[in-house]
Amino acid sequence: EERLVESGGGLVQPGGSLRLSCAASGFSISRHWMTWVRQAPGKGLEWVANIKEDGTDKYYVDSVRGRFTISKNNGRGSLYLQMSGLRGDDTAIYYCAREAAREAYQPYYYMDVWGKGTTVTVSS
Amino acid sequence: EFVLTQSPGTLSLSPGERATLSCRASQTVSSNYLAWYQHKPGQAPRVLIYGASTRATGIPDRFSGSGSGTDFTLSISRLEPEDFALYFCQQYGSSLTFGGGTKVEIK
What is the mean pLDDT of residues B92-102? Predict the structure, then answer.
């Protein structure tokens, strides 16, 4: 079974840092772009960042660029999101997702496997 | 800014009825790169449709997607008890944007 499990969420003070992890099983993340998506309380989903199969290309939503860093360790089958300079509006459930395979270079795609999410709360 | 507007916000229907969900884009969705997902509380979202009309692997044929350009529709021909959930659309032709979602609830 192809599965993604997020961890690392929690309560952090404004301005603080947190590192989210996502462990993949049942498939190799080296063959897929991977993505982080978040959902703030009472809001819709927001794409946060994604990373190419080999980790060479990364894309971010404007609101997190310069504060968040996405990375992956293909050997460990893990995806990460290093978050710093956290703000109240970063409070959300963070989902890790696998992007479907595509034939040509395309930085944005649909997600065919998702995790259940990990909750990040930014509050003093 | 690319905006996806889903309507209605909530759809109250009975099992066996047909559900029609709308997703309207603020600009043309490139190559009809539009997906639909189902999300139940505490569970991982599940892709239903991609490319506006292609069913994902394992998705029952009561789910169908249609539309092009700026107007897209997800139809569920006969609602099963397990279909009551939140549904959201996503475009991936120009960056990546999600709609606000439609909740399908039991009437």
Answer: 94
Q: How far is residue B106 from each of residues B11, B15, B38, B45, measured CA to CA in Å?
A: 8, 7, 16, 20
Q: What are the phi and psi torsion angles at A58 (to 5°)?
A: -140, 145
Give the per-residue pLDDT at A103. Answer: 81
For residue B15, cis peptide bond before it (omega within 30 degrees of 0):
no
Alpha-carbon distance B9 to B70, whole Å? 18
- In the predicted model, is pLDDT for residue A102 greater than 90? no
- Render pLDDT for B62-78 as a digit per residue (tens, 0 to 9): 999 999 999 999 999 99
Whole-angstrom Cα Rg for chain A:
14
Q: Facing residues of A50 across strands?
A: A35, A59
Would you call A80 exposed, middle or buried from its count of C-beta atoms within 10 A (0-12, 13-18, 19+)? buried
Which of B89, B87, B81 has the alpha carbon at shortest distance from B13? B81
Q: How far apart are CA A45 and CA A35, in angstroms?
A: 13
User: Testing the interface with B: which of A110, A113, A118, A119 to mutate, by most B Cβ within 10 A?
Assistant: A110
Are A78 and A40 in contact by the 8 Å Cβ rule? The answer is no
What is the DSSP secondary structure assignment for residue B42, as one 8-state letter?
T
Q: With CA atoms as reference, report the closest residue to B3 among B34, B25, B33, B29.
A: B25
Over the stretch B25-50, which tens digit does the pLDDT of each residue have?
A: 999 999 999 999 999 988 999 999 99
State the smallest CA–CA distance between residue B1 and chain A in angstroms: 12
φ, ψ for residue A42 (rounded to 5)? 75, 5
Name the residue in chain A with its Cα closest to that of B50: A110
